[in-house]
Design brief:
single chain; 6-stranded antiparallel beta sheet; 18% helix
Length: 92
Amino acid sequence: MDRVLHQQRIERPRPRSLASDLPDGAMAAFGGKPWLKLGDRLHLWTPGGYADRMALPAQDIEILTPAATLAVLREGYRPQVDASQSAVRHGD
């Protein structure tokens, strides 16, 4: 599994998708920055935790989450976002 995930992480060009088509918990790049998709928002990832949030953009964005992990998220796995390290609030 590690080999599969590693290969998917280094895949170029990275796959693209509408943000609205990504499952919650997926990471994507938009505007050159990494974002977490939760509900109808993207949450900016920073080394200090999640910061700004924005509505989902209408255009395709670059997917950072490996395909195998996306498959697990699409099957219903819900990642835990540590509230002590972030400003993420689902549904905001």
